[in-house]
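Standup notes
- DV: blocked on the single-chain target, sequence here:
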Amino acid sequence: MSKKHYAVIGHPIGHTMSPFIHKRLFDLAGIEAEYGVLDIAPENLETEYHNTLKKLDGYNITIPHKQAIIPFLDLTDHKAHLYGSVNTVANIGGVSAGHTTDPDGFLKALAYANIPLKNRVVILGCGGVARTMAYEVLLKGNDLEFAVREEDVQMVETLIAEIKNTFKNSNVSYCTIPQLKGDITTLINATPIGMSPKTEGQPVSDLVISRCENVFDAVYNPLETNLIKKAKANGSNAEGGMSMLVWQAVVSHYHWDKSKYASEDVEKICIDASKELLNR
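- DV (later): unblocked, structure below
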């Protein structure tokens, strides 16, 4: 079998974990493959698509190309169409197919950690990551609350209007973070608060954390943020973002070559990827 060729594209693109994670997955599947990093400026995307990207077996996409790549592709799947975003492309039989693995990576990370999306679900933040997570909560037929900074109120109101246009009968509300009270079934942090190097930060108070049954933090560096540490100390079920990052990669491999991976192997990659981050 000839060697396969893959890459991640973005601009700027620096210390990405993608090569480390994908190499581990290819090794587990017994697939001989190279995985590179391509810094492609927005103005060069069309040229690079025809000259370079179509020659790869597949590639991942990060900012700022997740929307811009779509017009060049031959097709996109249902989730990519719903989100208007592509982060994985499979080139198979001359056809370039776009997918988004963000939502499935999120769901698989929650499932592995036994974190439910039911009863009272609160998402902290209202950016792109929060939007993806919100859609998945609502696709399960659940109600949803956002908790945001005061300066993000207009932004969350715009997002909620979009959501209600897409999910006609959805029950979505918001409050500011200081107004967040009561018992929470699942708290999801979709903000960068607590991310290295500012690891001392946490997005909500100790009191709020103490009222959470489950906590998921999309931040993956460090492996355990203050939010996760305090949730676990309170006896809550808690999981950090590294699992979401790795599960997204797992879903990419399914689109590329139908590979499937055992949960314990994925967990080992999560631990090793976290060590790799520390070494860097």
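- Follow-up: The chain has a mean pLDDT of 95.
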